[in-house]
Specification:
Layout: H1 2-28, H2 42-69, H3 72-103, H4 112-133, H5 138-162, H6 172-175, H7 178-220
Helix pairs in contact: 1-7, 2-3, 2-5, 2-7, 3-4, 3-7, 4-5
């Protein structure tokens, strides 16, 4: 527990340093030939989407473990990861339209990638609403929703390769020149460090909540 309490501040400090450095690296990167300055949102939009997908996978796996073993730890991981999906997914859904308004001339298009990403985000909003308002047994129902949300991640990712869409396909990152790839990877690492720190903190809060509920149950008995 003590090691974890030290780890979180270290991760947060490292993420803060990386986020402080990121704008300078992005400024040094060359402009994209067609979109110009607005393309810079890419360096925040894509990493936040990657972290959103990762957290959905974490929630889904933890939910599956909870359904199989009824593990309280797995349940704490699942609900913590679900909250991170909603947080980082909100960043995706804000930065995406900001980019789209200048790049495409519209705030939103109901194409495959945008719509499926919104649906994925809403699935995990539903997960949290179930946990909050569904009452006894909500953990089981929410866990099933978490597994379903995880199953949607590959669909969201590959949707741009299956259907015609104005959204760039999955080959964009691989096609970047090194001067653009480096700040993207840097930003991804920064978002990942922030994600791990927030997830560990949220898991600790959830574990404390479970202990408090158990103590109340003992007092009532």
């Amino acid at each position: 527990m003590q090691n974890r309490s030290i780890l979180v501040p270290v991760l947060l400090c490292a993420a803060a340093v990386m986020f402080f450095r990121a704008p300078f690296m992005i400024d040094a990167a060359p402009y994209e030939s067609t979109m110009g300055l607005i393309q810079r949102i890419f360096y925040f939009h894509v990493p936040s989407a990657m972290v959103m997908f990762l957290s959905a996978l974490v929630c889904g796996v933890a939910s599956a473990v909870y359904l199989a073993k009824r593990s309280p730890h797995a349940d704490a991981v699942a609900v913590s990861a679900a909250e991170m999906v909603v947080v980082f997914g909100l960043i995706v859904l804000v930065t995406g339209p900001l980019w789209a308004r200048k790049a495409w001339g519209v705030w939103w298009q109901w194409d495959a990638r945008l719509t499926s990403a919104l649906v994925l985000w809403l699935i995990f909003v539903s997960y949290l609403l179930l946990r909050r308002f569904a009452g006894a047994g909500s953990e089981m129902v929410a866990a099933a929703v978490g597994v379903f949300g995880m199953a949607n991640v590959p669909f969201v990712y590959w949707s741009v390769n299956v259907w015609r869409t104005i959204h760039p396909n999955t080959n964009v990152v691989a096609s970047l020149i090194p001067e653009m790839r480096v700040p993207l990877y840097w930003g991804t690492a920064a978002f990942l460090l922030l994600y791990i720190a927030l997830l560990l903190t949220r898991m600790r809060l959830e574990a404390s909540r479970m202990q408090l509920e158990a103590a109340y149950a003992e007092i009532e008995d």
